Amino acid sequence: MKNKLITGAIVTLILLSVAVLFWYFSPSDISIVSLEAPKEIGIYDVNYFNVSIQNNASKNVNVTINVKNSFVDEKGVPLKDVEILEYENFSYQLSNISEKPQKEVSLKPGINSIMFMMGYQVAGPQKVDVEVYQHGKLADSRTIEINVLPAKIAIQLSEYKGINGTNEVYSVYGYLENSGKDPAPGVVVNISVINEIKNTTVSTVTRNYTISSYTDLLKMGRTNEPLVVWSSSNSTEDPVTGMRTTITTETVAPIVVIELSKNKSSDEKYIMSPVVVKGKLGDKYKVVVTARWKDRVVSSEVRIPP
Fold first, then answer.
1. CB atoms closer than 10 angstroms to residue 219
2. Alpha-carbon distances of 95 from 98, 116, 229, rounded to whole Å
3. Residue 3: phi, psi to the nearest 5?
4. Is the model's pLDDT at 134 over the cut of 70?
5. DSSP strand E in 180-273: where?
6. What is the rounded distance in angstroms from the CA atom of residue 7 to the CA atom of residue 1?
7. Quick one: 132 and 224 in the same domain?
8. How far from the centroid of its chain's Cα atoms is residue 296's Cα?
9. pTM of this structure
């Protein structure tokens, strides 16, 4: 009797082991079809990547998605919580990112697209790992590499056309951008105006700037630093209390003014702009602005007339 019990226990144990092995090694109905993400993102930027998962079952299947290294802090430590956005079969919609992050999702039969958020506070290559678990067993996994670009500066130019009598007046405005969390001091900016017909440089100036950090710019209600700003203050005093009120006005001025005359140039000096060029209608100019900061060089240009 005792031997029969031992034999029965052994047989039961073997059957359970076989069942577990069969379950563990049996193919899953779930597989990752693709993992799509931008090849490059900027440091401190928040971006997104999409995971497409195939559900070969005929009914909804609950899975757990584990995403590693999608958020990394300034010390290079990956954050544990990831943000999964609202998902639909064959499509996705952005949900309120303030909602509690979800990791367990229900996959409909077919292809399911799920979008995740990502962001990095360190530059360099980063690997994002995505693992999908079904009933505690790893169903599939994928890895993708993303290059995180260091903080950079950029130049934005815009032009405005006005009329002064019979003359056309083109104003070019310039702005510096800084994507870093720290200020960018010692930015050397060169502004040149080239006569494209004669292929000669008409005027050139060089100026030095310090660009506020991206977060400080946002606190000031803007995302860039104008290249030419004039400030003026006007104070008034209350004759009864002596209380003084001072109002400061900032005027963003053009970096370049080009006046094209039909006959005679105007007497306007355009003194608020560092570069003023007076030519004739039919002339063609190119305004080139180049900024150098550390080992980085960025440039932008506009043609006048456009």
1. 9
2. 9, 11, 40
3. -65, -35
4. yes
5. 184-195, 200-211, 225-226, 229-237, 244-252, 256-261
6. 10
7. no
8. 18
9. 0.57
SS3 158: strand
Q: Which domain holds residue 65?
A: 28-149
Predicted confidence band of residue 22 (pLDDT cuts 50, 70, 90): very low
Q: How does pLDDT run across 252-269, given as a tens digit for each residue?
A: 999 999 999 988 999 999
CA distances from 150 to 79, 120, 121, 147, 281 (A): 20, 10, 9, 10, 44
In terms of C-beta density within 10 A (0-12 exposed, 13-18 middle, 19 or more buried), how is residue 153 classed?
Answer: buried
Angle (CA) 84 181 124, round 5°:
65
> Running DSSP on this structure, what letter comes out for residue 84?
B
For residue 38, is the peptide bond before it cis, meaning its omega torsion is within 30 degrees of 0?
A: no
Pair 177, 114 in one domain: no
- Cβ atoms 52, 131 nearer than 8 A: no
Please enumerate in sequence order all residues whose Cβ is within 8 A of that of 278, keeping only pairs 6 or more positions apart, or say none.
Answer: 258, 259, 261, 265
Residue 207 sits in the same domain as residue 247 = yes
Q: What is the Cα–Cα distance from 200 to 277, expressed in whole angstroms?
A: 13
Question: Is there a contact between 151 and 295 (Cβ–Cβ < 8 Å)?
Answer: no
The token pair that represents 243 in the structure block: 């209380």
Instruction: List the one residue out of 23, 235, 4, 37 whose CA is nearest residue 129.
Output: 37
| Alpha helices (H) along the chain | 2-25, 214-219
Question: Which of the four pLDDT bands, split at 50, 70 and 90, describes residue 91?
Answer: very low
Question: Do 119 and 170 fall into the same domain?
Answer: no
Residues 182 and 138 in one domain: no
